[in-house]
Protein 1
Amino acid sequence: MKVCFTAKGATLESLSEERFGRAPFFIIIDLDSGASEAVQNPYVEGAGGVGPKAAQILISHDVTALVSGQVGGNAREALMAAGIEMFTFRGSSVNDALEQFKKNALQRSE
Amino acid sequence: MKIAVASGKGGTGKSMVAANLAYTLSLAEPVTLVDCDVEEPNLHLFFPGPAESTDVTIPVPVFDTAACDLCGKCGEFCQFGAITVLRDRVLFFPELCHSCGGCLLVCPKGAITESPVRIGTVSVSIPLPSLILVTGLLDTGSPLAVPVIGAAKARAATHPLVFYDSSPGTACPVIETLDGSDFCVLVTESTPFGLHDLELAADVVAGMGIPAGVVINRSDGEDEATLDFCAEHDLEVMMTVPFDREFAAIQNQGCLLCREHPEWQERFRALYSGCRHLAGVSP
Ligand code: SF4
Ligand code: SF4
């Protein structure tokens, strides 16, 4: 499965970002192969509708779970419709978030 | 002639000025008053009467699921994020759509058509023999004030003398209201906040190339800062209305200063002459 983490930078050491739609980077990790990819968010400065646009990025990358701080209403609706599960993480680095995700320690957000 | 009444912020008495101008002038000639503060129109409180209302609609896309092959082009195109293309269907967010019609054009399958949805209403009433009141009202929850303002203004497009009561602030709705105006009356109060907001509004009006003048409302007699600002920016102070409890009470009861105190009609007529003069319209 592919999990997306919202991050302030492009690496696993980067701080995680609380906001989904305006996260500078989406770090997408394929848990089966271990491969990771950093996708820069082109909508960081967008005026509106950044949530669904960001959701579209995740859908295009076949992501099945999202780990982020807060996900707005429209983005949430799009992600749910796409069957992408959401988990809440407010903490330090993407690595941390990944560890906790693997340990099943993150709260699922409905 | 089209005259907009605007202010940098709410509560300066902008509607008071618009209503009294329209009332006074309508005693001598036909006047149309357009309430462009579509999120909170209030001029009907001064001018009650039966109104005829029509819907304002905007076109939004409708997706033909049979024709759509989920290529994603519409979602990519929509800069407002109103479309998310899922693996099995298209998700549409009507409240994000700006009705630009672009997705229709880019869809290679012709799977998108448009259908109208209501975003507000425009009501027209004739509360006084020579006064037509046009009120734009935005439906709650709709973010699209601009098309409703446009529709309200369109109802008065051919009328000879029109006053637009703008929404407060300097955002898109105010620009839409000011667009096409021959003159703008900026209403302010003699407080530091009032001055700051006046500066913003004066900037916008100047940027749009619309001649303007200032009305100081609820003046406490200490208007130096405002007067200095106006002098520096070549803005004429066209009228000063003193702070007065009785005036405030008249206003709160939905009454008109110029009806309760007809001696004020002369001053509002002079204000109008001033508008014509500054706008370069022959008297
Ligand atoms: S009409 Fe314009 S704003 Fe509305 S969904 Fe289509 S592309 Fe987006
Ligand atoms: S552009 Fe047309 S065919 Fe492509 S996803 Fe949108 S509606 Fe479907």
Note: Residues 65-110 of chain B form a domain with the Alpha-Beta Plaits fold (CATH 3.30.70.20).
Protein 2
Amino acid sequence: MPKIVAVTGNEAVAEALRQVNPDVCAAYPITPQTDIMQRFSSFAANGKVKTEMILVESEHSAMSACVGASAAGGRVITATSSQGLALMWEILWIASGDRLPIVMPLVNRALSAPINIHGDHSDGMGARDCGWIQLWSENAQEAYDNTIQAFRIAEHLDIRLPAMVCMDGFIISHSITRMEYLEDEKVKSFVGEFKTLNPLLDIEKPVSYGPLILTDYYMEYRKAHEHVMSKVPGVVKQVADEFEKMTGRKYGLFETYRLDDAEVGIVVLNSAAGTTKDVIDEYRAKGIKAGLLKPRLFRPFPYAEVGDALKHLKAVCVLDRADAFGGSFGPLFMDIASSLYIQDKKPLMFNRIYGLGGRDYMPDQAEHVLNELVETAKTGKVQSVKEYIGVRE
Amino acid sequence: MKQKGWKELTPGAVVTEPGSSKQFKTGSWRAFKPRWIEENCIHCLFCWVYCPDMAITVKDGKRGEFNFDYCKGCGICALECPGKKGNKAIVMEEEGN
Ligand code: SF4
Ligand code: SF4
């Protein structure tokens, strides 16, 4: 029987990592992720996992050690947040370019300066184009479930790419909610034995990682990377189907909420989706046909499927918990706009930036956006394409 | 050699053929060429140790000729060479002279 528990998001992710029992973990503490690795290193110290813990001097070194251990042939994890992810930047590209299936929980936090430790998506968005898979999670249950599934997706022999599992710092990582843990045995058999691919430690078959690839082949390797990314959604769905059979919990490339017959819709990532769904219920009760789309697989972004799910709406608001300075719009908005660009018929669209640096996203903000959506649908006019909401003038 | 298309590549650019660097002749990089002056050579084999491209051949424990297929002309051997009585046994000369 699955165990019902009351835990924080960090505790849930640490538990998933314990159940997977990876070979190597190289990590450096950073708020709000620290708690995951603190718990995980206790598991290692107390013999609950056989993982070799490598305590390094920075996140740059953490990711570098992960690259080495993964190339050597191990199942490898780390976790980070914010500036930690920024410091890994250079090595993130090595991990993906070398096609190493490292799994990394990313507890989303704002980037400095000004220094801020709270939930915000600037860190994950900054790493969206580095060739990693990104799964985003609304709550502790999703973060736990996505962590387990991430191993299967990343390690799939058709894929072999590193994967980040994102959840909101503090709002999810440090809040206690009720959720379900699977039995250890079930997790173990679901993720299965780690399969190596060209491991460095196979001395019978010597290999080299990281050769110099210049003008003659670099572009072919990039095309191959783009191609392997295109196979990820299929694997994500296949793994989700198996996961549903085991748990009854359904996952896809994204979640839709009351969207099919909706006239207006909100697109939002992670924890703010929960609040938004509540407000949508209130508006539905008032007879307003509102719905929601919450991306789960953010990289690679399932453009065609997302566009298909949104194209029937009259108006869409994309809520971004990060800005893309100088790019005009928030990062999620730009992807949703691209998804709809390829559709013949498309809704009116606007972008609202909310919740930066952990600023609370309250139901009145969702109401404000829904009112604006209803007005836009009625008048056929977008008042203003991009605005910050919940900010003092 | 026909170059491979993107579908034929090993994931992650991993090189699975051991010793394949032999196929890559770095000799064409050379702008300066080392010349061995045998009478100044004490056969200490410093040049053999320091050469990054294994371009110094050794026979029966004695220093042999350069392998110019791989010598890229970096000059490390000439720098490290102690020679005899202050006279270097390796000197670097401009290519094509
Ligand atoms: S010049 Fe450089 S590459 Fe050539 S033999 Fe000397 S050390 Fe080796
Ligand atoms: S380093 Fe100079 S002296 Fe020593 S073996 Fe080489 S050429 Fe001869």
Note: Chain A touches chain B at residues 97-100, 160, 197-198, 205-211, 213, 216-217, 220-221, 223-224, 227-228 (CB under 8 Å).
Protein 3
Amino acid sequence: MSHHIIQADNLKYKYPDGRQALNGVTFRITHGESVGIVGANGAGKSTLLMHLAGVLFPDEGEIRIGEVPLTRKTLPLIRQRVGMVFQDPDDQLFMTTVYDDVAFGPRNYKLPEEEVEKRVISSLDTVGILHLKDRPPYKLSGGEKRAAAIATVLAMNPDILVMDEPTSSLDPKSRRRLITLLQGFTHTKIIATHDLDMVFELCERTIVLKDGRVITDGPTEKILCDAELMEECGLELPLGLLGCPVCNAKKTI
Amino acid sequence: MSNPVESLYNIRLLDELAEKKSIIHNVHPLMKVLTTGAYLLVTVSFNKYQLSNMLPLVFYPVIVMSLADIPAIPIFKRVLPALPLITGIGLFNLLYDKSPVLVLPWITIPGGWVSFLSILIKGFLTILAALILIATTGMTKIALALRIMRIPGVFIIQLLLTYRYIAVLLEEAGRIVRAYSLRSAGEKGIKFRDWGPLTGHLLIRSIERAQRVYRSMCCRGFAGEYHTGREKGINTGDILYFAGWSISFLIIRYFNIPAMIGWLMMGVRR
Amino acid sequence: MHMADALLSPAVGGTMWAVTAGVAAYSIKKVQNELDEQKIPLMGVLGAFVFAAQMINFTIPGTGSSGHLGGGTLLAILLGPYAGFLTLASVLVIQALFFADGGLLALGCNIFNLGFYTCFIAYPLIYKLLVHKGYSTGRIFAGSLLAAIIGLQLGAFSVVLQTLFSGITELPFRTFVMLMQPIHLAIGVVEGLITAAVVVFIWKARPEIIEKAASGQTIGSSDIKKVLAGFAVIAIITGGVFSWFASANPDGLEWSMFNTSGKEELEMPGGIHQTLASIQEKIAILPDYSFKSSEQEVDGDAPETEGWPAVNAGTSVSGLAGGAMTLLLAAITGLIIRSIKKREKARAV
Ligand SMILES: Nc1ncnc2c1ncn2[C@@H]1O[C@H](COP(=O)(O)OP(=O)(O)OP(=O)(O)O)[C@@H](O)[C@H]1O
Ligand SMILES: [Mg+2]
């Protein structure tokens, strides 16, 4: 399905204060791929994702989703296809109840209310928080908020899921639940994160960013096991790959 | 209400009450808003000396609170902070209005007392009515009522956003104040030279948050307009609720019920 | 100071509601015309910010007391007058609902007193005038300080007028003004200092925020004139309608239990009076006696009450007893409903 291909071509972006956050990023992601984007703080991960969702526009270079170049004109179309889950769920859950929040997107596309309801219920059900639908967001735990934020995006029926640090500030159990949930999705997934163990489990491919540039791009096992490379990019080997600190037994992949 | 944590607790309590289920909670929000409006108008329309006439107005909060399972004490506690101001202004009536008024055949008091008491009662009832409205309806449904009243969506979404982020920002403000007081070695309050930076940081963070919120709204197709869904229909029961109360309020307004009761009692008693 | 429902008459409250709704409708149109949808979340979050910042108490040097941020001026500076006014309005709506600040009927007054003068008078005429020559720390500081002080002075004066027009307080105009203005000068200075400190901090840290807010926000004198003219028209019309209403339905002072003349006391509209009288006759054991006796008492006392009109002590006593009975009945009603509900719940379990 060629229309789900994401193609980034030599993206450059400078923040208004002069900081060059992206400095020539190029990659191509095909349908159904799961890609982890890793890199140290300030490497440009969030900035890159915002370009993919059409929140920011590159100063130079181009993004294509399928055959469509991402421009201000094609934005409504693109935004329906690309669902972005932001770093802080409090930014994404801006309505007063979970239901209204999840319904916000479909309503903006003027779907009939029955269809809106159907989508809200099914996306809340998918992330397992249907029982919380009438709660105000501030009464949710961190994990529930994250799930609700994902539901807001799912309700838009996107083809591509873009997520910024989905596991940050989750306890181990919520994190596990989230990973299992994401494993069940057939969408194309692009996940920026510091949680390398999750990348290991979830993404067959990894792109490493440093100072707004792609350092490497390839199969996850190969990249995340490369201790030297990881060190150079301000990262560490995933815990799962380190020996057990007690018995020193190495995990086998 | 001058403490971030307390305010947060206050909002949460009212939100929780609004989530309960009862006959009153089920009434259409628009009808509850209109009923509250009628109640307020009738309450303040009483003349300042009509102390006993307005007493039957007490029935409204009593009945609604009982039907809606709203606990009296926490709500009364929230009425109290608003009273000092009213008391302050009302006290002047004691000073300026000395015309004697007969209470019992052998007792006269200055008229100021009567108007003072009536201001206090009005204050109590009007504040209570507002709290009852929010405690049985909740902000989301009030927004729905506003929408039906054709208030523009821009204002409504803005109101809802403010409401939504109060909880977030109160927490942030609470953290800032706590962090400040931990480092300010037992000093009370915040020093003058720290006023700007302290509030300013909170403000900058708020502006940045607004930008992120805007982005996530855009990602979900926001284009400056706010669409509410399910505008729950108004049924006969809802209309009867409003009509019933309005008629009762008018009866209370135009007939001196306590005087009638008293008159009947006097006959019975002796 | 927040105006309170209890201090308002329906006419004044209603008029101010109409005026405020008019100003708000005009502001909404203006904001929508700007077509800057990015402003909508900014308004929402800044409203929450003002709310949260008001919970922070600042100690006032040299005194033991504390003050807090006043919202109107700051919002006008950050968002421009129209968006600022709307944002302050939603803050006040939430305060009225959740914190019993003022009240719902007084909401019109409060939005007007705290929002109109700051956003549409003090901001364009003081702040903008001071900074229009170019931004500098001194000008921004002075501009926001003065705008906050003057905005609050006008608001306080407005509170005085609204209270007096409502006729609830006996306070003479002069005394009231002499009381309100100085108090609010003190409060205004503190609020102004906090506002100025924040604006200057933002100006130093992120100048573009202050500049961007002010650009594209040209509120010309014609706009002010339009707003003022519209405001005057609405005020006159609604004020007129309400006072006509009020005079067509004169206040029922005659129903007062404390009424000193006491003659009309029990002259309720014919039908009801007769029905009640006949009911009373049936249930009262010695109807005639009871009333005669109480009236005789009054007649006997009358000369001693220094020429005050003869007061019908019978009605006075019955009013008091009836009042107590009303409250008692209300309490009993509440208890009954609650106990029925409890039983229902118990049965449901
Ligand atoms: N709004 C902004 N204005 C100016 N500079 C910014 C802004 N947002 C980010 N930057 C800068 O751009 C660079 C890239 O930031 P970005 O947020 O993309 O990093 P990141 O890889 O997501 O980091 P983290 O892991 O901490 O989330 C950083 O140096 C950051 O300081
Ligand atoms: Mg990031």
Note: The radius of gyration of chain B is 24 Å.
